[in-house]
Design brief:
It is built from 2 helices and 8 strands; from the N terminus they run αββββββββα. The protein is mainly β and 130 residues long. The chain has an 8-stranded antiparallel beta sheet with strand order 4-7-6-5-1-2-3-8. The longest helix has 9 residues. The radius of gyration is 18 Å and the shape is globular. The C terminus is likely disordered.
Length: 130
């Protein structure tokens, strides 16, 4: 049975998300930040702080400087007394985060306002100060 925040993690759709940062920030804390969503539902920053955690890079090449990583898929497994969040990325790379608990934060981006601005038939009135 899922608990300690893992039950919420299973509901997050990270497919096609772009990883902004991932790292072991303390001896037992891993943090992940990714931009998730699409133009239909909107975009949001997804931030996960994993506690009692250890980051394992399963496939070489993950985290190379200047390389964006798109999430192809993820899986959550129960292992002994902990959980494992496995993530496969593109163009290459896979990582696992073994953890005891996780806290999730979502920050909605205001894409709808931007979309409305560009959808206007006439540009907004502009004033030029001379």
């Amino acid at each position: 049975m899922l608990h300690s925040g893992a039950e919420k993690l299973i509901e997050v759709n990270v497919h096609d998300g772009v990883i902004d940062s991932l790292g072991q920030v303390d001896h037992d804390v891993v943090e992940l930040r990714a931009l998730i969503g699409d133009s239909q539902v909107g975009y949001e920053w997804f931030e996960a702080s994993y506690f009692g955690a250890c980051l394992s890079v399963v496939e070489a090449g993950f985290g190379e400087a200047g390389t964006a990583f798109e999430v192809l898929g993820d899986e959550l497994k129960i292992q002994d007394q902990s959980f494992v969040h496995s993530v496969i990325t593109w163009p290459r790379g896979e990582f696992d985060i073994e953890f005891a608990a996780v806290e999730l934060t979502f920050t909605l981006l205001v894409v709808r306002i931007v979309r409305r601005l560009f959808a206007r038939e006439e540009p907004p009135a502009a004033s030029i100060n001379q």
